[in-house]
Structure to design on (181 residues):
């Protein structure tokens, strides 16, 4: 008996839809548990951070990535490899300053909001997808890169695009190793 070739893709899609629906239920429950949006945002960020510090091992093992030499290379890997691997999307990347330590990921399609049309009433400061910021921050910290990760724009709040800002507070030092003779 043979299996259809596209069965794995169907399972991936079902898993993604299940994750998105489960995430929506989680955010809805957090909104019931916490009165303030800031508390929900902090909880989602912390949850994402915990996921990120564990997810980086899987990412490094599955992607066989080499060490990035610059912040821009790091952000490109996040956008082109990690987002594609785990969410099936590839955000575009832009750098906003000359010191090359501040970047923006523009998500044309955010799979976490596939079944969400708008924020709950009275929750205008809720950052629905704040989990993503925590995941990125946690994963970067595990490879010894401190970063501030925030949502700059969000389609759920009426913006034209969903945009995540990543700022590296320290200038990246490229160490040159001396060869032993």
């Amino acid at each position: 008996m043979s299996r259809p070739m596209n069965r794995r893709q169907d399972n991936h899609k079902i898993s993604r839809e299940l994750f998105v629906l489960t995430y929506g239920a989680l955010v809805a429950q957090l909104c019931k548990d916490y009165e303030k949006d800031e508390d929900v945002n902090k909880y989602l960020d912390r949850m994402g951070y915990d996921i990120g510090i564990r997810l980086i091992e899987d990412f490094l093992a599955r992607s066989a990535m080499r060490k990035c030499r610059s912040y821009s290379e790091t952000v490109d890997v996040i956008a082109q490899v990690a987002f594609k691997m785990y969410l099936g999307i590839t955000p575009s990347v832009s750098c906003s300053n000359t010191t090359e330590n501040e970047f923006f990921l523009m998500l044309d399609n955010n799979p976490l909001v596939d079944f969400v049309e708008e924020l709950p009433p009275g929750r205008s400061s809720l950052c629905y997808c704040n989990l993503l910021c925590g995941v990125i921050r946690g994963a970067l910290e595990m490879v010894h890169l401190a970063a501030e990760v925030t949502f700059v724009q969000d389609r759920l709040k009426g913006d034209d695009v969903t945009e995540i800002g990543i700022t590296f507070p320290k200038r990246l030092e490229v160490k040159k190793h001396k060869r032993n003779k």
About this structure: The beta strands are 92-95, 102-107, 148-153, 162-167.
